[in-house]
């Protein structure tokens, strides 16, 4: 376990915010993760656990310890119907998707190029292009910071929802995910529900073709965080009642919405932001991306405060125009831990 005396976090968050912390620990296996986290808890030190750093906004110096999860390992078992994978939290998610394809275990291709680590994936139930982690998850193992014990929850106990899970609710700031178990059916069935994928033939399409298509879409729509700092989609797509959607349609006939139940419709947050004329708007070094309004980018040495103020401006404008309240996806991190964006 390496304790780094240079406590810059700028290279550990995909937004590229230049933040620092009191103490920085790189934990390369499960035992080191558990020890580091419990030791800091015993000292009553603020604790921040990082995977790929793709879902956080650091707003200031963190007055505590940052533990970076770098545990690696993919264990595979199979039966007649499926492959069963147990993946360590520090594995890169996109690398896992590629690994599965290369080893003839398809199923995750719709989730290609989602940034971040495997350990972060269950927290917000990552999803894209018609697929969600919940469809493949068998169980999640985590360290309970309150009891000091390692626990396992099966998929139903994780309470997965749209960009949501028990790890964002009851176990928020209490669970450190150690490993994730996935099930990939041997009888592959392509998920072609998303627009550009509908052009494929179910009979002839290959997992690699779906993977390549998803990668091309994401690379076209979303900036590479290595080139332009960002955390991907900054806002959740809001869900409104069917009656509210119909009312909005009267004023905005082109509004984009997807029926999710008999009573609810999911709006496209990016459409709302673009319609509000906010593409390219900025605060300090933070801007709304010109190609994808759902993405806020670090255009010129943005601070976490710049990003948060820009997000507040967007939320206020959308609420004023449409009567809809946007929710942020990334975690907002203050001096001692996670906080709400209103207080950031």
From TrEMBL:
Just give the chief location class. Answer: cytoplasm
Q: In which pathway does it act?
A: Cell wall biogenesis; peptidoglycan biosynthesis
EC primary class: oxidoreductase
Q: Where is the active site?
A: 163, 233 (proton donor), 329
Q: Where in the cell is it found?
A: Cytoplasm
Which reaction equations make up its catalytic activity? Answer: UDP-N-acetyl-alpha-D-muramate + NADP(+) = UDP-N-acetyl-3-O-(1-carboxyvinyl)-alpha-D-glucosamine + NADPH + H(+)
Cofactor(s) this protein cannot do without: FAD
Fetch the Pfam families from UniProt.
FAD_binding_4, MurB_C
What NCBIfam families does this protein map onto? murB, PRK00046.1, PRK13903.1
Q: What does this protein do?
A: Cell wall formation.
Protein's recorded name: UDP-N-acetylenolpyruvoylglucosamine reductase
Organism, scientific name = Shewanella colwelliana (Alteromonas colwelliana)
